[in-house]
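Can't paste images in this forum, so I'm doing it all in text. The chain is below; anyone willing to post the predicted structure tokens underneath?
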Amino acid sequence: MEKNNLIVKAVNKNVRTSPRKLALVCNFIKGKKADIALRDLEFSRKRIAKDVSKTVKSAISNAENNYQFDIDNLFVKEAYVGKSLVMKRFRPRAKGRASPIKKPFSRITIVLEEKKEIKKVSK
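Text version of the structure:
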């Protein structure tokens, strides 16, 4: 990403939860300032909020170290989830049968944007 775009992203590729559960947490932080999003994830009751928090911290680090953004002006522009691989397991059932169990993985993408604050000149 170029500096003139003022955006940076981080992707966590294999998170062991279903995309549907993860989307609830991602929608919760969309549009918030980065530090407020981290605070809200800290107090979230969802187990997966810890992994989302790691991804947001990674995006903040990318912005700070790679693009020299000011971390006070960063906010979560996009937070979305995609499907990743699915582990397939089988559970033994009655009469010699087996039933499948699907253990889905997800992919989290966090896009941060730097908002430039325009200083108003008062007369």
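DSSP finds three helices and three strands in the chain. The two ends are 38 Å apart (CA to CA).
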